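Slide 14.
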Amino acid sequence: MASAQISMYLPPDVNPSQAAIAYGCRALPKLNKELQSEDLLTRQKALMALCDLVHDPEHVYVAIDIGCLESLKALLKDTNDMVRLKTTEVLYIMATHNVGREGFLKYDVIHALSYLLHDPQAACRENLHLAYKHLAQVPSGAQGIVNSGLIPALVWKLQREEENIQELLLDTLAACLMEDATEALDSRLVPFLKEKLLSTNNNIRSKAARTLVAIRATQLSLLWPSIPLEGKKQIWQYDVIPILVHLLKDKVKEVQANAAGALMYATVTTEGKYAALDAEAITPLLGLLFSPLSKARLNAIKALTMLAEAPEGRRFLQAHVPNFRALEKNDNEAVRRAALVAIKVVEWKP
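Slide 15: predicted structure.
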């Protein structure tokens, strides 16, 4: 006759590494209390459970409302590596939601996270920079990072971090520079980016060029003409333009497109125009007019338009007007408009 036996194993849906989650509206208040526990294992289990819950923006809203951000800020200074790691993981997941980004700004999480910029655990720093990257995707978040005074520190870390973290730093800086490039330029960002343009990592080359575009865009849209265009000057002063011209022939299409974008802004000044002409930028830019990437085509047309403002550039490009006319029928409206402008500039006669 069969007899009942009690299994020696845990039920299949029980995770012994995370705290048991209370039912309904009691779940997050219970976890918040456990985050403040003196017991290390209790804190660790609570963080493991919270990592799962904050993927839902509704849970993020409730967590912020009951004060979880203050508990998490305190845990950023915990002496245990796992606690800091899981805390930064929770925060970067929260930063993927708009309600989480608003909470970061309201409760000054940006400043609290900055204490871990030099954390010995690379995974912890990676989570930190993921949080900053997601926060910077909205203008208020990027401005918050700028206002916190972190830009010089982020530029400095760009030279010293591992490559995967460098990519995150470049994403964050590109977004922040769209708001204000002053501190970054004062921190010698341009020569640092020049080095990154020569990286063997495809993503770093591409993102470094895109960050240069962000510097140029800031200077044009926000600082012109009341403040000297320091960003424009630094591009040619540090001999970045020849490297950008070389990247127009890069094996990666995205790198080509971003390099053309950086040249588009760099050639606004007379010095930039002639530096690009001396580096023979016109020929590779013409080659990008029929790139499979619409962004590359658009950036190349605009860069060539800038070069056509110089007499030498205009004379060279007059033989290539048919290439621009072929783009008047392009599917992309921005490309069509840019081609029309380019034709007018190239065919202009004094």
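Speaker note: The chain is about 65% helix and 0% strand.
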